[in-house]
Amino acid sequence: MPCTNAKPRRIAATLRRALAGLALFLAATAPLGAETGPVHLFAAASLTTALAEIEPGFEAATGHDLVLSLAGSSALAQQIRQGAPADIFISASTDWMDLIAAEGLIEPGGRFDLLGNTLVLIAHGRAAAPVEIGPGFDLAARLGDGRLAMALVDAVPAGIYGKAALEHFGLWDGVADRVAQTDNVRAALALVALGEAPYGIVYATDANAADNVTIIATFPPESHPAIVYPLARLAGRDGTGVAALVAYLQGDAARAAFVRQGFAVLGD
Fold first, then answer.
1. What pLDDT digit, counting tens, does each position of 44-100 carry?
2. Disulfide: which of 4, 91, 135, 185 matches 151 by Cβ 3.0-4.6 Å?
């Protein structure tokens, strides 16, 4: 049977892109003297490479400086709760966004799901052979005397997803005391890229951004919670720059950058 929800979703996505284009046009044609102050974006560390590509384009298109704070979603959420001057927050987890939403820190109607991602097992070097992850996969034996690099498994989304995936296959107990936990997923990636850990669990987009790692397996979506990046405008943080950034992140240039890094752009 045909999907009855597909057409409304396409219409909504088309309308959102049209509104994004209008907002960018208005920002670019604002009269001299209009507010062009910096916009503060707090974003998950896994967005580092994509946002480095997006930043100059946004600044050139709108005249606003973009100030990036990149870290684990848990650390950023806690900073926002403590009053950090963020205008927009992009989390790698709906849970951390739900937390600040419950405290009234999100502008009403200012939240939507922006991106999706996949979870992978990586190995040091460019010639590692692929493996098949399943209940019989002996990850502990593969580690040898080394450790498994992961973001904090009880706080950072990538670590939470990774632990859930290993538990799904019954592998967690065998490696729990062999995990090298880091403050964010990019730090876990660095441990593997530098050869300080033979294996790690990161997002596919992180692995794509590193020169000295190989994706040797992809965790199936059913093995962990869905990886969704919600975006939110924070309460009381308004202005032309904030609106322009939200619009730009939904526009064609940002979309292309996200897709190049391996993200799924949601809402299409």
1. 999 999 999 999 999 999 999 999 999 999 999 999 999 999 999 999 999 999 999
2. 185
Query: What's the residue count for the chain?
Result: 268
pTM of the model: 0.85
**Confidence (pLDDT) at 238:** 82
CA-nearest of 229, 249, 232 to 157 is 229
Are residues 20 and 84 located together in one domain of the fold? yes
CATH number reported for the structural domain that contains residue 104 in this entry: 3.40.190.10
What pLDDT does 200 receive?
98
Query: What CA–CA distance (Å, rounded) separates 206 from 188?
Result: 10
The encoded tokens of residue 149 equal: 């690099």
Q: In 3-state terms, what secondary structure has residue 124?
A: strand
Contact 151, 119 (CB under 8 A): no
Q: How far apart are CA 90 and CA 115, in angstroms?
A: 9
| Residue 1 domain flag | no
The DSSP code sequence of 13-81 is: HHHHHHHHHHHHHHHHTPPTTS----EEEEEEGGGHHHHHHHHHHHHHHHS--EEEEEE-HHHHHHHHH
User: Containing H/E element for 185?
Assistant: helix 185-193
Residues 138, 108: contact at Cβ < 8 Å? no
